[in-house]
């Protein structure tokens, strides 16, 4: 065989190996999620079957119907949990973004003494593990009477989200050239007007992604919520999911259905923000 | 004379400071105080008894605690290193793809959308010894005839938890490293090839130094959130069997809420906080160093 064709063969072989590698990697990533979705649609008998049934014989939405038809039939009050999750996540996101915008703007546009240590200090508050923070918060909330309320959890989530929101929004404001706001000020805008009419619209998409990221953090949070909420009036979905496992016999199909309900908003939102999120996190990496 | 006039950045950062002080700093000071008391939830009067370092001393001689501590560090070391390696591999696979890169990128982000509690549940389901996907597949393929007790045997449970942890967090590394690869200028790679570098040398001395800051950003983000392993363990094994997968965080929760020994739990919590801070500061410094290096070279 001459050198040309052996090189061609080698190249084709490498191409095939590469495709297989990529396929396996993607399979590993997607399979667990797909399996959950599939299991939520199968009859419970099929999930428990021995030997296993690989190809579903019938598909039904019974688990979802049971879940949303209230406590009597489904077991856990999914609608209430869903509502709690939504109220808490949205409110705390709005507040965290407002605070984060102010802070991020300060980091992006001003030079001040001890800037990097203030930044590190903010980040350090975020490193406190949720469960460690829940101990004093639990005690304080019981004393203040805000345990097991929306307000208590919202307050905790705002603090949880502020540092990271500042980091992201700082990155997005840095991407907006300083000259633009200065030009607007020369043309007679006040700094306040320049911010709202020039810099804010330009950083807008980035701020939206920071908001969605904050929302997802709240939506998915478990460690704090599991200790600071007790009853149906304040429990969020992740805590609700644990309700299912607490029972002696586990309703796998019901849990899968609840998991799908939890993942759909997260899936949609992450898909929307993915591009901006990566841009915001890395904007400081190259330019410093 | 005008009075004290606060500067603009101070005013802008004030709301953030107030919230963080109220919800993080002050409660932490409170918990620092209570770690010096024998405080129990059932007996509020014990909150005012000061016992000095006795909680800390009894932790130091508590073998369960040290096992949990060692296990936590082991899990983090294994998980972070493998996540980094796999993330790098995944990013390079996706970067090589000529078609459908957008789709691949979206698929790659898939695990990021799962909350830790969901990841835990999903792997609890898959590793179930009786009906789980893993055992079913192994048995159908004839690799093993008996059901493997994934979540029932201590070492296997630890492996299962590590897999869940790695599955959920590799995406963050892959995405950020991919961003680095895509942002990288192509000339240095071509120059290296012209100068006769092997692919490995090109990767080691050209690509890797450039991608490093991105990897450290991922590390920093990850280390901000290392304690999310708590959620996974909580739902998968809840520290069992017989405490074999107990991590620092599950131990803190058990001591505080099941045993009601708040003072002791707070003392333990401080170890977990210090651990998190150590990880973050370490990667933050690496990040700063990598940034300045890049700034000097490009």
Report on this model:
The complex is a heterodimer of chains A (288) and B (298). With 288 residues, chain A is an all-alpha fold. Chain A has two domains: 58 residues; 215 residues, MetI-like (MetI-like fold). Helices cover 81% and strands 0% of the residues of chain A. The longest helix of chain A has 39 residues. Chain A is flat and about 75 Å long. The C terminus of chain A is likely disordered. Chain B has 298 residues and is mainly alpha-helical. Chain B has one domain: MetI-like (MetI-like fold, Orthogonal Bundle). Helices cover 72% and strands 0% of the residues of chain B. Chain B contains twelve helices and no strands. In chain B, α3 runs parallel beside α7 and α9 packs antiparallel against α12. The radius of gyration of chain B is 24 Å and the shape is globular. The interface between A and B is large, with 89 and 96 residues.
